[in-house]
Amino acid sequence: MSDIFNKLLILRTPGIGPAKYNALVQKFGTPADVVSALAPSDELRDAVSSEMARADSLHIYYISDTDDLYPRALRATKNHPPVITVRGNLDLLRRDMVSIVGTRHATAAGMELVADIAHAFASNNTVVVSGMAIGTDTAAHRGALHATDGAGTIAVLAGGVDYIWPIENESLYWDIVSHGAIISEMPVGFTPVANNFVMRNRIVAGLSSRLILGEADLKSGSMTTARFAHELNRDIWAIPSHPSDLRASGPNSLIRDGIAKLCMGASDFFATTKKEINQKKNSKKIDTENSLIDAIGTIPVSESVLAEIVKKSVSEIKGELVVLELSGLVRRVDGGYIRA
After folding, report:
1. pLDDT value at residue 162
2. Under the phi-then-psi rule, with left for phi > 0, alpha for psi from -120 to 50, and beta for the rest, what region is 2?
3. pLDDT tens-digit map of 260-276
4. What pLDDT is recorded for position 287?
5. What is the pLDDT of residue 180?
6. pLDDT of residue 253
7. Low-confidence ranges of the chain (pLDDT < 50)
8. What is the pTM for the complete model shown?
9. What phi, psi does 48 have (nearest 5°)?
10. 82 preceded by cis ω (within 30°)?
11. What are 17-34's pLDDT values in tens digits?
């Protein structure tokens, strides 16, 4: 009987989680000894056998905390999952990781900044970890995936690694399976309930040596992840925003309380690239010739408002906006234009 099978028999027994699992192993000696003491039913044995067969058919792997592949940072946390399932590139489990999380209702500017930061980390051989929710998580995963020859990204799910949630991110899920990895501590085929997302957040925090928090209100799941990271003595960074926006209350409060460092962008972690330097030079050049760039920031501004600011007609500024957009200095989003 395989070691993984024994461990799963224990973990799939109702009422047994990581803490109880550890207590039982400490009491009886080995997983096999625990199984003998628990005397699991034939029904449970069949269920675990079926789960493992499904995992094998879907190329899903079980990684035990006694395996070399088990992520080092996660293994060092108290009551970590004794067994995780992984779908995708197992090599990512050996890499350095950074966790990036935030609200599902992120602004376009907030998601763009998160994507830029994730892209920078992935480009510098650091795996980006998030929870595959819409909004900030999606921006983090996409930013990492867009990095040429980058380290990739890991999505931690609240359900089984084969359960795609939210369904809006189905295409993202398959992109991560192809170019990253999906992780979960839950059984293959498991449909998550509310409490599982909190458990998911604990793993997101535990996998990495540092966590970056984007937009998030005080009661969001992302703040729960930040609290887990704080308890684990992880290095926490937070992206500030305007105090009038509820999505700023989470990161702003962490910065105010000294729990998180102020994050202004990828330049906080990596040297400015030649591309970024050239973009700044182009921005400065156009800045002296076109007052439009001064009127555009991180909050979307419509063409009509821009026209009033620069005292021109909408038709007059349309051409100038096209030039700025083609130069990579501004971007059109819902609600108008923002700085690129």
Report:
1. 98
2. beta
3. 999 999 999 998 655 55
4. 37
5. 97
6. 98
7. 1, 277, 279-289
8. 0.81
9. -70, -40
10. no
11. 999 999 999 999 999 999
* Amino acid 308: pLDDT: 81
The domain locations on the chain are 1-57, 90-268, 274-339
- The Cα 260–Cα 35 span in angstroms is 44
Q: What is the pLDDT of residue 337?
A: 86
Determine the Cα–Cα distance for residues 188 and 7; give it in Å rounded to an integer. 15
> Do residues 146 and 121 lie in contact, with contact meaning Cβ atoms separated by under 8 Å?
no
The answer to whether the CB of 196 falls within 8 A of the CB of 81 is no
Q: Give SS3 for 63.
A: strand
Residue type at 308 in one-letter notation: E
- 294 in helix, strand or coil? helix
Residue 8 Ramachandran class (φ > 0 left, ψ -120 to 50 alpha, else beta): alpha
DSSP letter string over 145-203?
A: HTSTT---EEEE-SS-TTS-SSGGGHHHHHHHHHHSEEEESSPTTPPP-HHHHHHHHHH
Q: Where are the alpha helices (DSSP H) in the chain?
A: 3-11, 18-28, 31-38, 42-57, 72-75, 108-123, 136-145, 170-179, 194-207, 221-231, 249-256, 274-289, 292-295, 303-310, 314-326
Tokens of 201: 């957040």
Predicted pLDDT of residue 89: 97
Residue 24 near residue 16, CB atoms below 8 Å:
yes
Residue with tokens 């992120």: 106
CATH of domain 90-268: 3.40.50.450
pLDDT given for residue 119 in this prediction: 96
Span 274-339: which CATH code?
A: 1.10.10
